[in-house]
Amino acid sequence: MQAKKKIDVQRLRVFSSKVKDLRNATFTHIDKKFVSDSQKPYREAGLVENEIAFAIDTVWRVVSDLWVEQFGRPLSRVDQAGLKDLMKEALLQLADTIGK
Question: Cα dihedral sign for 26, 27, 31, 32?
Fold first, then answer.
């Protein structure tokens, strides 16, 4: 088994806070200060590609480690395909939204 890398929890918390603020301003309810500029909350969140990639890579590593602990084997290609498709879809939607 390979050595587990240390998880940068603080960096994940910062990312999570940005995503939470974005969610609260756009998905939970439409904040009236963003009605005239729907892209403003995305700009204000300040998410950049390397932060999103870091979060996805870190969470993927944690999920994979938990899977091995729970099931005693690595994720199979079938398991991975479903999870990766969900992650890709979510990332593409986020990138599309931020890029507008």
Answer: positive
- Report the C-alpha gap between 42 and 38 in whole angstroms: 8
The reply to whether 3 falls in a domain is no
pTM of the model: 0.62
The b/e string for 16-55 (b: 16+ C-beta within 10 A; e otherwise) is eebbeebeebbeeeeeeeeeeeeeebbeebebeeebbeeb
Per-residue pLDDT tens for 65-85? 888 888 888 877 666 667 777
Angle formed by the axes of helices 49-71 and 9-23, nearest 10° = 110
Q: How many domains does the chain have?
A: 1
Range of the domain at 76: 9-99
Closest CA to 26 of 14, 43, 7: 43
